[in-house]
Amino acid sequence: MPSFPKTYRKVVLTGFGDTLRGHTAIEDTPWQDPGPQEVVIRNVLAGVNGIYDLNMARNAVDYITISPPTDMGIEVVGRIVKVGTEVNGLVPGDAVATWKVGTGYRDYQVAPVSRLYKVPAPTAEILALIPTGASGLVGLEQVGEMTTGEVVAVSAAAGALGHIVAQTAKLAGNHVIALAGSAEKCDRLRALGLDRVIDYRKEDLAAVLTREYPKGIDIAYDSVGGEVFDIFLDHLAVHGRLIISGYTAEVGKPTDVSPRPRPWTQLYFKSASIRGFINPHFKQVEPRAIARLLDLYARKRLQVWADPTPFVGLEAVVDAVEYLLAGKNLGKVIVKLADDPGPAV
Ligand SMILES: NC(=O)c1ccc[n+]([C@@H]2O[C@H](COP(=O)([O-])OP(=O)(O)OC[C@H]3O[C@@H](n4cnc5c(N)ncnc54)[C@H](OP(=O)(O)O)[C@@H]3O)[C@@H](O)[C@H]2O)c1
Fold it and tell me: Right CATH number for 145-276 from 1.10.3720.10, 3.40.50.720, 3.30.70.240, 2.102.10.10?
């Protein structure tokens, strides 16, 4: 019989503030057995959503009520260590991916079977696709109404979400403009065969778009906000769609009140639109997007990037968040919580 710990550790938000550092603690929590339709998972790798984590600390996640102490972390890959009495088709040792706010930054979690994706192994690449990569694809297709033969511009294109957005837009037969903030990131993006890679810290983004894309951008997939958002808005094509998928450059700052013309001036005469996107509103299409991305990855049609900087253990969570918020990452930032115990023998 396997033995389980009486307690395990988790990261909690202890109070609100402008940084995560100083507002989290690692606490013990009692072992909990699974209910009939639940499993216990040994979390192996946790995905870092630095912007979301910071927004939790700032009490700025609009659609949830946060009252510290609050459990943190969202997506993980891991191995099932115990199954409930009515669970069929899953056994200890199975690798799974799952996500829910408050279940990521902890050593174990109890999860209902309805929230599990059975995966080949708990790897960093699978974690990067579920759900971050899938969110990008859902945003492109459902909100951006992506077709083919269009010009698609992607900000933070070397990021966890962005590199999947850029590649899936290219795979669909579009002309892809990728923005990133360093030479190394741009080299990696060029190696993906994207059509135009722009180091927006060195090149003048507005000038490049004016000169090279006089007809404008059909889909601008933006998760950065600020000036990049403004420039995308100024350069939409007829029927152009500007997707707001995030606002990284503005997180933690007072809302930018920008003295610009009202947006109708950029939209009306082009039948263009600005469209907000947040993945909780698209749950019904997520499973299909995940299955397609896993298939593309398995067939080596898609590169999936996990940032190589090692963050190990719950103590490293705040460092990992700060690393992401400093814009240093290439691909998904991940915290390793345990060695993969491997499948049951
Ligand atoms: N809509 C949704 O459902 C959904 C789902 C998941 C994530 N998101 C959002 O998508 C965005 C990307 O998330 P992610 O986890 O994939 O992060 P990420 O893109 O891997 O990392 C953030 C990147 O943003 C760029 N950046 C631009 N301006 C920045 C600034 N002022 N400070 C720091 N970084 C800056 C940096 O790359 P460069 O320097 O190369 O620009 C940085 O690497 C976030 O805003 C997140 O909230 C949205």
Answer: 3.40.50.720
Radius of gyration for the chain, computed over Cα atoms and rounded to the nearest angstrom? 21
Distance CA 49, CA 53 (A): 6
* Cβ density class 192-218: b for 16+ within 10 Å, e for less: bebebbbbbeeeebbebbeeebeebbb
The residue with tokens 């907000």 is 276
Q: Is there an atom of ligand 1 within 6 Å of 249 CB?
A: yes
Q: Closest Cα to residue 19, out of 345, 219, 253?
A: 253
Q: Is 277 in the pocket of ligand 1 (CB under 6 A)?
A: yes
* Residue of the CA atom closest to atom 39 of ligand 1: 181
Fold of the 7-129+292-336 domain: Quinone Oxidoreductase; Chain A, domain 1 (3.90.180)
pLDDT at 1: 72
Query: What letter would DSSP give residue 327?
Result: T
Cβ of 329 less than 6 Å from ligand 1: yes
Ligand 1, atom 20, lies closest to the CA of: 159
Q: What is the pLDDT of residue 258?
A: 81
First-to-final CA distance of the chain: 13
Residue-level pLDDT at 98: 98
Tell me the average confidence (pLDDT) per consecutive run of 10 residues in the chain, 345 residues long.
Answer: 92 96 98 98 98 95 91 98 97 97 98 97 98 98 98 98 98 98 98 98 98 98 96 98 96 83 94 97 96 97 98 98 96 98 84
Written as six digits, the tokens of 47 are 């995905």
Measured CA to CA, the distance from residue 175 to residue 153 in angstroms comes to 8
Q: What are phi and psi of 50, to 5 degrees?
A: -60, -35
- Alpha carbon distance 327, 313 (integer Å): 21
> What are φ and ψ of residue 195, in 5° steps?
-80, -40
Whether the upstream peptide bond of residue 308 has omega within 30° of 0, thus cis, is no
- Determine how many CB atoms are found less than 10 A away from the CB of residue 320: 26
Cα gap 186→122, rounded to integer Å: 29
